[in-house]
Structures are given as structure tokens and as C-alpha cells.
Prior knowledge:
Layout: H1 12-23, E1 33-38, H2 44-52, E2 67-74, E3 79-85, H3 92-99, E4 102-105, H4 110-124, E5 144-151, E6 157-161, E7 182-189, H5 198-206, E8 213-218, H6 226-236, E9 247-249, H7 262-273, H8 279-282, H9 289-329, H10 336-359, H11 367-370, H12 376-394, H13 424-430, H14 456-464
Parallel strand pairs: 1-6, 1-7, 2-5, 7-8, 8-9
Antiparallel strand pairs: 2-6, 3-4, 3-5
Amino acid sequence: MAEDDRPGLANQALLNKIDKLRELNAKSIELPQLVVVGDQSSGKSSVLESLTGFSFPQAPGLCTRYATLISCRRAPEKHVTVLIIPRSDADEAVEGRLRAFKRSISNLTNEALVRIIEEANKVMGIRMTADDTEPSLQTFSEDILKIEISGPEQEHFTVIDVPGIFRVPSPPLRIATLLCRTIILAVLPSNVDISTQETLKMAENADPDGMRTMGVLTKPDLVTEIATQDAIKDLILGKRNQLRLGYCVIKNRSADDQQSTISDQLAQEKAFFNRSTWRQVAASGRCGIGSLKNRLSDLLMDISKKEFPHVKADFARRLDQCRSKLESIGPSRTEQSSQRIFLGKMASKFQAITQCALNGYYDSEIVFTEVPSLKLITKITKMNEKFANDFWRKGHKRHFSSNWDDEGEKMYKLTENNDNSMPFEDLLQNYPELHDIIDTDKYQCPKPKAFNDDSIMDHIERVLH
């Protein structure tokens, strides 16, 4: 397919639906997504800039402390919207404050974007410098900063940038949390030993079989040794790699080149890979940002189409669960009469469950399947059996025979415990209100004295005299 004929980096309507679900905070339901991960010095920002055409602002203390969702959309007018998607466990007050943050600008400058991101950091409570000693501030956040870029030249594209690998304790969003609907784009510098890269090791934890991970090699212009160049070529050509999606290589903009446009960078990259050193792999379709975008287009399209029916099914199940819970709550009860009727029904239901628990009619109420420890008559029977067994073993003061199995017909056997019931101690801990109606004092039953050489008749004679 020619590059001009490609449909963009996924079907627009489909991606819009997925982004809307993510913005509405889908919580535990995983959505198809493309996630870019990499070390702080891996060239990840340059990869994201090449993919999205969005230049990330450079400012002291502005390094990523949370996941950033970059969404590109084609639109007649050029503008950028920045908002915050709250974490799934945020309380109502925090969620309201985070969702209230929304900034839109049409004239995008580095200074304006830096100012907006700094405002977002304050709303999320991010500690940006060592001088921030406020205890409520946090180094990392599980909230997501969404940057929506619209314009007539934008391709439809969505990518998530997760925090780089910091040399400090545990960022909150770990690669290991990425599941089966996530494509992992692992950004790796070419001028270091790939086998030692922590990014690749962490991606392997989330994708042990390497089925959903693509390696992106950066900074090939810094590779001068022939052996290292050959090793990079082998990775690109698939001669030695464990990633099913393989590797691509792109050339980053140099650190001192801050003036060149995207078109200039693409021209420089094409000229670089046309050199004799890299010409062998240039024909593989895995060199340059254009080739990378084409591959991501196919991958994102495939996973979106494949997983979206499953996503719909997950949401349908969740919706049914919510409806069932709402139906169990019943209609609104604002009047005292309706409240009394409801409490009366609750009391009657409790009485019915208690009666079933005492009579052993466990099949009539689903609560006994959900909470086996409520099977009261079974509990009482087991307690009686245990008491009878203890009494048979320890009820006498001393053994009458060395072979103490001869002293009774048989041991009282306990009923097999196959109901996975909760012990009374745990039950009382979970329901402290039961302390007033359950006697928790355990009876003490010391062991009988061991048999000795004295006969039982000698023992009786001593007792009588």
C-alpha cells in the first residue's frame, strides 16, 4: 500500500471510541493501546516527536512524572488541548478537581506549553524540585496527562508515553502492568549493549514471549565500531532477536539541532540510511521514521479491530453488573413510609436467611455459596464433633492401659471439612457485632496422665484409702 493511500494510524472512528472510553476512565477494563517506553537518555522524546510531529517542551524539572497520552486528530483548525484523566482510584473530590483542568491554545509555543504543563503538575500534586517539602506532594502520579493535537496536516494517531526509568524507587506505572491489548514500543540507543538494557528486560516481564514488543533503535549515527554496526544490522534483519515484531531503526535529531523542521529531519534521515554502511538494511523496510509509522499503522489497526469486540463484551458485562446492583438497591426512598417498608423487607430477608442457616437449607439462598461461613448449623455440628472428639481423647484423668486404643471402641471421627468455611476467629474479626452473641472463651482440656507400671487396681486402692 502506498504511503499516501494508508488510512492513518488506525481507523478514525474506532480510535475515537477507544479514546473516549479511556477518557471516561474505564478502570479495570484494558483498552487497545500503543505504549512507548525507554530510558531517560534513550532518545524516546525524539521518537515521539517524529511520530506525532509534536515537539515536547524542554525546561528544568519538566521530566515526565506520569503517563502522557498524545492524541493526534485531523481537523480544519490548528489547536492543542491539554487535560487530565484521573487515576481509577481517585476519590470524588480529587476526580472533580482533576477533570476541571482543561487548557486550549491555538498558537502553540514552547513557553505556553511549559506553562500549561507546570499548571497541570500543580493540580496533580507533583513534587518538581527537591525544595518542594510539602508532604502532600508526590514524585510520581498515576493520573494521565492527555495532549490532544488537532490540525489539517495531522494523522490520526494515539500513543502513551510512560515515565522513563528513573534511578529512584519504583515509579507507579510499571511496564509489568501492561497486558494483552498493549503494543510495547521499547526505545533503545544503538550505541550501548542491547542485552544490558533495563527497558528490554522490563518489557520482557510484561511480554515474556516477545509477541507484542517492537524494538526501536535510536542514535545509529553514534555507532562507529564495525562489530557494533553489524550487530545492529543483524537485529534489524531479524537474524538474532527474540521479538516477534522485530526491530526498526531511526536517526534522531542531534542535540544541537533545534531549528530544523520535520521535513528537514526526514531528508537528513533518508540521506543517512542511503550511505553504503546502512544501504543493506535500508531496503528491509525497517529504517526511518516513515517505515516505523507504517508498521505501527498496521499493528495498531490489527489490535484495535481484533480486541474491540472483546472490549465491547467486557463493557457489556460490567454494565450488566452495574444494572444488577442498581436493581438490588431499588428505587429512591425519600419518604419515611417507603424507608420503613424497605427496612421491614430487609429484616424479613435477614430472618429468612437465619432460619435457612439453622435448618441447613443452604440451596435456597445464594448467600451461603458466596459466604460459606454463614452455614451456622454446619458450624455447630463441627463444633460438637470436635468437642466429642476432644472428650473421647482427653476426658479421663489417666490412661488405663499402655495400648490406649484398647480402652474404647473407636475414636470419634470428625466430619470432613470441604466447605472452605471461615474460622470463627476470622468471622468475628470481620463482623465484630457478633461478639455479644457468641461465646469466644475456649474450653481447656488437659491431656490424661501417661500410663505407668502401676495397675489400675493399685491406683483405685490408693484413691479409696
